[in-house]
Design goal:
The complex is a heterodimer of chains A (about 110) and B (about 110). With about 110 residues, chain A is an all-beta fold. Helices cover about 0% and strands about 55% of the residues of chain A. In chain A, strands 2, 4, 5, 9, 10 and 11 form a six-stranded mixed sheet that branches. In chain A, strands 1-3-8-7-6 form a five-stranded antiparallel sheet, with no helix packed on it. In chain A, strand 4 (about 30-40) and strand 5 (about 45-50) form a beta hairpin. Chain B has about 110 residues and is mainly β. Chain B contains no helices and eleven strands. Chain B is globular and about 35 Å long. The chains are: A mainly beta (about 110), B mainly beta (about 110). Chains A and B meet through strand 5 and strand 10 of A and strand 5 of B.
Chain lengths: ~110, ~110
Amino acid sequence: RKEVEQDPGPFNVPEGATVAFNCTYSNSASQSFFWYRQDCRKEPKLLMSVYSSGNEDGRFTAQLNRASQYISLLIRDSKLSDSATYLCVVMGDYKLSFGAGTTVTVRA
Amino acid sequence: NAGVTQTPKFQVLKTGQSMTLQCAQDMNHNSMYWYRQDPGMGLRLIYYSASEGTTDKGEVPNGYNVSRLNKREFSLRLESAAPSQTSVYFCASSGNQRVQETQYFGPGTRLLVL
């Protein structure tokens, strides 16, 4: 079983729509959680950390559910520039574990 | 600041050839990492260096060696390339020895082994 699992998508949404997706993790002792963004054929970049109480960064909202071992990302008022692959990243033991990513395509 | 730089950007090798991927960072970070990314899979850690002078195996170290040349540079060597090593390789760095610090990635090296 993969340590971090994500729905690969793609999620195709119109501009202005809300899109949300989850990621599940297997290690209940995981300590820190992140969402990274990766544009096509580019390097991953940190989008936001995920805190236990949930947190927002502009149009992006991240939630953590430790009991069910998943984290979520919600994007409101989608922009064309939000088209990317979103990587769920979990820190457990000594290393980061990356999900394979969820692809979001925002259309005009 | 250039951040994290990697060379080369692209490389084609024949099975059995060797090569070294170079990585450098100018952010004075202590920790550096090498990952590979394959279709349908998340980034997988090959080796990491928590600080200058130390290196440790990650999830998929077989077939690779690393050198932390100094605080800035961390190289990855393939001694005898195999087709299974065809992948995109990313180098990353972070501020201190705590893994949970934000990792900054280089632009990647696309490697094809024939």
